[in-house]
Amino acid sequence: MGVVIIREMVGSSSQSWSDAAQQAVMRAARTVRNIREIEVVKSTARVEDGRIVEYRVEIKIHFEYEGA
Hints:
Elements: E1 4-13, H1 17-29, E2 35-48, E3 51-64
Antiparallel strand pairs: 1-3, 2-3
């Protein structure tokens, strides 16, 4: 592996933190190739009426640089 670029994203889901991370990766994969790994930096949730209604994860996406 040569040069790795790291970008930060926030994913969200009504199901789980794991699904929130997966949603972020799937979204990034639409325009980014060679995603190699992610790092979950922070997990949070939005609460309404005493219940979690949205899970959120802040992630760093690591992908390999293809430039010259």
